[in-house]
Amino acid sequence: MQILLYLCSMKLVFATNNAHKLDEVRHILPADIDVISLEELGYTDEIEETGATLDENSRIKAETISQWLSARGQWNTIDGVFADDTGLEIDALGGKPGVYTARWAGEAAANRQKALHELAGETNRKAQFRTVVTLITADGRTQQVSGVVGGWIADSEYGNGGFGYDPVFIPDDYDRTFAELPAELKNAISHRARAMSELKRILHVS
Length: 206
Hints:
Largest sheet: 6 strands, mixed
Strand order of the largest sheet: 2-1-3-4-5-6
CATH architecture: Alpha-Beta Complex
Helix content: 25-40%
Strand content: 15-25%
Oligomer: single chain
Low-confidence stretches: 1-8
Mean pLDDT: 93
Order of helices and strands: EHEHHEHEEEHH
């Protein structure tokens, strides 16, 4: 079942404390969607990601904020809540780090180095990023969409842009990492961009 919202403009809460994700999503989604951060909403708690899959974690985050809005009677000013969970899935590692992508070795730099270390001497460096987005609308309906971009893990870190694993991930059809590509290009081809495209489809916006 698709969720269609025929609105001239909408206010959506993005259930994340990640400033990099927030910035990306605001650049990807059209200007007539007002993307509200958790900080702007006044939500200061950390949401525990206890799910065993990206789908579960995405749903947990969206449901947590939906319930918080309900408890405070704030749904009358919000059209929807969405959350994403993203995983790097490396073929040679059986799909790891997957759901543990953000906390595989600790901080982002340590995560990247762990990926490079685990693949030392490995010829199969194929990988993909997968983003799962959960949308909950004001009337309580829920929909999940996803976006995937294939690629491979570089032999070292390259580039100063992006965040997370971007300096070691080279998307298919390109010879530079996400961190080396212009932000506008990354935002057009990334896993998150593809998931946001699906989100726009069910929101019925262009």
